[in-house]
Amino acid sequence: KRIPAGDAVFASQGVVGRFSQRLDVRPMNGHLPIQQGADWFVFTPWVGIETQKPAAAMVFAGQLAGPMHAKLILDQNGVWVFRWTPPANVHRLNVPSGAAPLPAWCAPGAAGRAVLTGSPSTWHVTSDGKQGYVADRLEWARMAGRFEARVTLSAAGPVNVEVWDNTGNVLLSRDRVPYTHGKLTVTLPVNATRDYHHPLYGGWGPFQAKFGGGPKGQRIEVRVWSPGGETVNVYSAQLLTVSH
User: Fold this and answer.
1) Cβ atoms within 10 Å of 208's Cβ, excluding its own
2) Phi and psi, residue 242, nearest 5°
3) What is the pLDDT of residues 12-58, one digit of tens each?
4) Could you give phi then psi for residue 106, rounded to 5 degrees?
5) What spatial distance separates the first Cα and last Cα of the chain, rounded to whole Å?
6) From CA 130, how far away is CA 124, in angstroms rounded?
7) Residue 31 confidence (pLDDT)
8) CA 137 – CA 110 distance, rounded (Å)
9) Model-level pTM?
10) HSE value, Cβ hemisphere, 13 Å, CA-based, for 121
């Protein structure tokens, strides 16, 4: 209701149907035709059936907030809404694939909150003083292999940097950092060479279904955990493929 009727809307696949009454609405993938005036981007990376991976959504949101100078209108309950006024010479927009570092402000954990003041280049997640994950859901879809995770953070006390294979629900790597002197990039080797398969429900009794196997590859996630009581700031995370 807050989006003017004449403005274009680009929404995540999981919720794009909610905007079907609008004149100009498209799912957020591929090459987007840009309308001059105002364009709105509605991200819900963890809602419904999504064709855009969470990593791609986070990278795109970071670009909108940063170099594209879009205005963040809403950041609540895993929903981000941006309003962007495109330059006169821009007619199409390429949706990024998610290879760049992920901005941590997109994914605060149960023990974290997003800090969205000042320049977007300084936005981050900070701890709320409780025990738990300050940042999580920093996730990529990758084929099985060896990787290197890089997490940029600062911590006044101990903090755990973890890498999980969410497809198999397996902890792949963990580094305990006692504290940092200012901002630090923690690097972890990640052995994700085992190919786990996500189980699919096939029915019961006389009712059976045969599925195509689901998305290929592994869901690799970075999480940052704090025992509480100390200030922890998480800025970004990146997953790099290690060549053999």
Assistant:
1) 8
2) -95, 120
3) 999 999 999 998 999 988 888 888 888 999 999 998 888 888 999 99
4) -70, -20
5) 52
6) 17
7) 85
8) 11
9) 0.88
10) 2
